[in-house]
Predict the structure.
Amino acid sequence: MCASVPRPVAPVCQSRNPDSVISPELPDEHETTAVPKRRRRRPRQLDAGPFAADVASFRLHLAAENKADGTIRIYTEALLWFAAAYLLRETDKTRWEQVDAQDVQRWVAWLLGSFSGAYARQQYRSLRQFFCWLAAEDQVPDPMAGLRAPAVRDKPVPFFTSVELSRLERACRGSAFAQRRDAAILAVFRATGIRLAELAGIRYDPGDPDRSDLDLDRREIHVCGKGGRDRIVRIDHEAARRVDRYLRVRARHEQAHRLGLWLGTGGRGPLTANGIYQMVKRRGEQPACRCTRTGSGTTSAIHGWTAAVPRAT
């Protein structure tokens, strides 16, 4: 078999704003962390043909173990992509038990040459989980038994600096609904460092504490984290004060009966994680703020901006 590197079609990584253009200008070093431009990915081939049946069985196994939907999607799509783009195109193999270590190595080598080390490692781990399951399930050799995951070089995680955070907070000053809501969101983010999805998922019901994740008296918030893991995070007094200011105007909102804590303007329902992302991005673009980032820098900073912020105790 020819050992030439395959040229499969890669997955999509669309911009949050399809009309946005990456600026060639570098940010000020004292305010931002530069982020390398991420390579654009094209749609993946996922038609795995004869390999698809075992992937479906593996999906059922993951669901029975109560894995998160996102985890199941990542694992199974990695398998379908490997089968469709490499095994069916570059080999004459039609069954998973025919796959050997060189097949995996060639695929990972192509991934490392086309994408980041972290992405290649994620794909490798997806294959590893599947072959471990298949070896135990069908008593077949594990082609990855002697392989090691690709090394990943540590990269600095971009985050909003204290200068940028202060500008964002100033952009939210005021008594209007959106200003109070956005100030509360920023305060909770800064005090806890919780994930964007965790923040968007906070529930609030003033009439039923069992359905509410928020306890301002104790300054505690119950969040549902990655993989469905629950935990309690604490906020400082300033964050509690800003959330309380927001709750007073929230009570007059026409969607106040909704469980989602962060409601939209104009009578709209609860904000999604993407809605919060767009809010922070929009605030950062205001002339008084000027701390917006373009491309992956914006996403990474919003997700990891509290990396250097002390947590409330």
About this structure: The first strand starts at residue 214 and ends at 215. Confidence is low (pLDDT under 50) at residues 1-41, 293-313. The chain has two domains: 1-12+30-156, 162-304.
